[in-house]
Every structure is written in C-alpha cells, then in structure tokens.
Amino acid sequence: MVPDLADAGEGRSVADALIDRLGEPFAVSGLELGVGAAFGVAVGPDHGDDPVTLLQRADIAMYTAKAHGDGSAQLFSAELVTAGTRRLRLAGEIRTALDEGLLDVHFQPIADLRSGKVVSAEALVRWHHSEHGWVPPPDIVGLAEHLGLLRQLTLFVLRSAVRQCATWRDSDFDVQVSVNLAAQSLIDVGLVSDVQRELRDAGLDPGRLVLEITETQVIRDPDQALQVLRGLSEIGITLAVDDFGTGFSSLSYLTRLPVNEIKIDRSFVANMLSDDTSAKVVRSIVELGKSLGRVVVAEGIEDLVTWDVLAAMGCDRGQGYHLSRPLNAERLTPWLTGRARPLPAPSPAAPVVSRPEDRPPHSSSPSRSTAH
Ligand code: C2E
Ligand code: MG
Ligand code: MG
Q1: Are the beta carbons of 42 and 14 closer than 8 angstroms?
Q2: Which of 90, 102, 294, 359 has the CB geometry, 3.0–4.6 Å to 289, for a possible disulfide?
Q3: Short-list 243, 242, 246, 283, CA closest to 259
Q4: Ligand 1 centroid – CA 353 distance (Å)
Q5: Does ligand 1 have an atom closer than 6 angstroms to the CB of 142?
Q6: Ligand in nearest proximity to the CA of 217
Q7: Of the spans 39-48, 57-66, 293-302, which averages the highest pLDDT?
Q8: 157 lines ligand 1 (CB under 6 A)
C-alpha cells in the first residue's frame, strides 16, 4: 500500500521502480539470483473507495500483467473487467469445446522459396466461439495450459494434422505437416509415446511430421526439454525452432539442440524491407542456419519482393499471406493440386537419353535411367 499518491500514474511509476529493483541480481550463498514480478495497481478513489474493492481490482490488473510476462505493471481499468469476464466464459467452455469437437485445425502452406513447390503445411488451432467470435490461438493455448487441458489440446491438433497428412499422401501430395508444441509439452515425458501412437494410428511415416518449439520453452528447463527433444528426434521426427530471434538463447544453444529447422520470426521478416536492423537480423539468421546445416524458413512473408529478397539471401523456405493464409483442409486440398505433387516421371514412350554418369553406381541394368 502506498499512501498519498498524486494520481494513478504515480502508482504505476512506483510499481515500475519496484520491478527495476527486483530485476537486479542478488547473491544468495554464492549464487546470483534474479526475481521476476508482475504488478497490478489499483488507486483510490478512482478505482474504489474501500480496501476490498481496491484489492479485488488490483488482483484483476495483476492477472493481466502476468499474462504479459514477468517485469510488467498494469493499472486497473474497466476494460480489464470485460476481458476478465470473457476469459472466465471461455475457460468454462473450452473443455466442452474440446470434448465435443468444436475446435478446428487450419493449415498454412510452406513452400520452397526458389521452386515455389509446397513442401509442408503448418497446423494452427482454430476456435470460433458462438458469442466471442474467433478466439486467438495463444489464448486457447493459455487457457488449456491453465486448466490442465494442454495434453488434450495438443493431441487433438496432432491427431488432426497427422491424419490430414496421411490423406494428402494418399492423394500423392508430397508434404510434411508441422504442429506447434506449447511450453508445458516439453516437460511432458509422455509426449514421445503420444506422438508415436498417433503416427502409428494414422499410418504416417515420422519423417512427415515436424514439431515446432520456441527458444523460451527450452530455456525454462533445458535438461528436461533436451531429453524430450532427443526422444522425438530419435524416432525420426523433424524439429523446428519457431519464432527464432525473439528469445535470448545463445548460438551455442542451437548447436546442442537436435533441431533441423529454424523459423525466422515474422516480426523481422515483416520489417526487413523498411528497417535495416531487421534485414541484418534476417541475413544473420539465414547465414547462421545455413552454416550449421539447418533448413531456414521465413515466416510472415506478405509480398513478392520480400519473397524474392529472402530467396536471394539463400533462405530455403517461406510461409505467409503472400503464398496463402491458413485454410481449412477442404479449401487447402484443391489449392495444393499442382503445387505439392512430385514431378511426373518421364513417360516410357519418350526416349530417355541416359549418360553413363547418370546411372546409379553398380547398376545391374544399364538401360535403366535415374529420375531426379
Ligand atoms: P506461429 O506458430 O508462429 O504461427 C504463425 C502465425 O502467424 C499464425 O498465427 C499465422 O496465421 C500467422 N501468419 C502467417 N503468415 C502471416 C503473414 O504473412 N502475416 C501475418 N501478420 N501473420 C501471419 P495464428 O494462427 O494466430 O497463431 C499464433 C500462434 O499461436 C502461433 O504462432 C503458435 O505459436 C500458436 N499456436 C497456433 N496453433 C497452435 C496449436 O495448435 N498449438 C500450440 N501449442 N500453439 C499454437
Ligand atoms: Mg509455428
Ligand atoms: Mg512463428
């Protein structure tokens, strides 16, 4: 409690000063420790004139601050009550939505930047609430984490994705499918067997599945995360680091993780034509990724110029509104026609000129040519 404040803004300044002080490392038994904090601020008489109301309102503000992460302070406002009510409504309904199949999965294609061939599609969860409209995916994931429904949500998206990928494969679409993992999934020791079971049930090769993780998830509990990631990698799943560039991991970290792909965060990609620093960040990530032998994917490409600049930089793959927005499978499947099918094999009637060096080594049939 801080008495005699001039106005609500001063209350916020006090909270900011406390956050700064708490952020300074302090020594305990020879260890440097840091503490993160989130503050909710309510000021009388603007936000209430009795202690109970003020505490309730500071509490509401604190939950918003927490949602923004450590190191933030939030002043109470009436809009937070509306947002809080909405959150409560959604929290009450997400379980039913999951049980009754009211959630959906959309897919956004990812293409080779040079050939334009679609090589993969990212599965993104969707929930259209009858009253609140489209619920942003990070809110869905946050609610599921909070309510202990994350495993159920992850399994729902994973199952939809691997089944859809198997259907595409059966129609001769040569694409992988990516699924995002939430922070808590990486500390779930049952994840590897869940993934194996879903792949087996769908009859899908593990090589067709990509799992996307973020840097921050790994930093939270590196040893546990590394164990889960190794388990996934050993069964042949491709791992990608999502939103790369927004976290604070060191480069050496990347070499320790069994990841095959790096996805450059769209905040850099979106600004790279207008902002020199973003362009430099993108270029460095492409060079870093290539030198470490990783596949580099740019997210959030919204126009052809950005697409071409990235291709010229040596970036491998691209994803974004320029290629396609996320679509449901019924709409994406016809779109994929011609963009994700393997090149047709040469027709037997056409004469195939085969040079000796084109033949596979030790080929028993000299008349057979290799198709590329
Ligand atoms: P993400 O994994 O980085 O997914 C890419 C996000 O960027 C998607 O947002 C996509 O719609 C959006 N996007 C793609 N291209 C463009 C573009 O050109 N411009 C702009 N402005 N945006 C573009 P979405 O679907 O809203 O998902 C947001 C985030 O929510 C995802 O970011 C991911 O972190 C999380 N998420 C989505 N679905 C799931 C899920 O099933 N499970 C988990 N754990 N997280 C999910
Ligand atoms: Mg992703
Ligand atoms: Mg991303």
Answers
A1: no
A2: 294
A3: 242
A4: 47
A5: no
A6: 1
A7: 293-302
A8: yes
Q: Whose CA is nearest to atom 44 of ligand 1?
A: 182
For residue 70, report the distance from its CA to the centre of ligand 2, in Å: 23
- For 206-258, write each residue's pLDDT tens digit: 999 999 998 777 777 778 888 899 999 999 999 999 999 887 666 667 788 89
User: Domain locations in the chain?
Assistant: 8-76, 91-343
Measured at the alpha carbon of residue 114, what is the angle toward residues 113 and 117, in degrees to the nearest 5?
Answer: 75
- Of all protein residues, the one whose alpha carbon is nearest to atom 7 of ligand 1 is 300
The structure tokens listed for 29 are: 């038994």
The predicted pLDDT at position 87 comes to: 82
Q: Name the average pLDDT for the chain.
A: 87
Instruction: Tell me: pLDDT of 355 over 70.
Output: no
14 in Cβ contact with 2 (< 8 Å): yes
Q: How far is the CA of 95 from the centre of ligand 1 (A)?
A: 22
How far away, in angstroms, is 243 Cα from ligand 3 center? Answer: 4
Which of ligand 1's atoms lies nearest the C-alpha of 302? 18
**186: which DSSP letter?**
G
Q: pLDDT-based confidence at 32, cuts 50/70/90?
A: confident
pLDDT digits (tens, 9 = 90+) for 109-141: 999 999 999 999 999 999 999 888 999 999 999
Residues in the chain: 372
For residue 96, report the distance from its CA to the centre of ligand 3, in Å: 28
Q: What atom of ligand 1 comes closest to residue 105's alpha carbon?
A: 41
CB 217 less than 6 A from any atom of ligand 1: no
Q: What is 91-343's CATH number?
A: 3.20.20.450
C-alpha span between 263 and 179 (Å, rounded):
13
Task: Using pLDDT thresholds of 50, 70 and 90, give the confidence band for residue 297.
Answer: very high
Token pair belonging to 261: 């792909």
**Ligand approaching nearest to the C-alpha of 108:** 1
CB atoms within 10 A of CB 331: 13
Residues 6+ apart with CB under 8 A from 270: 278, 300, 302
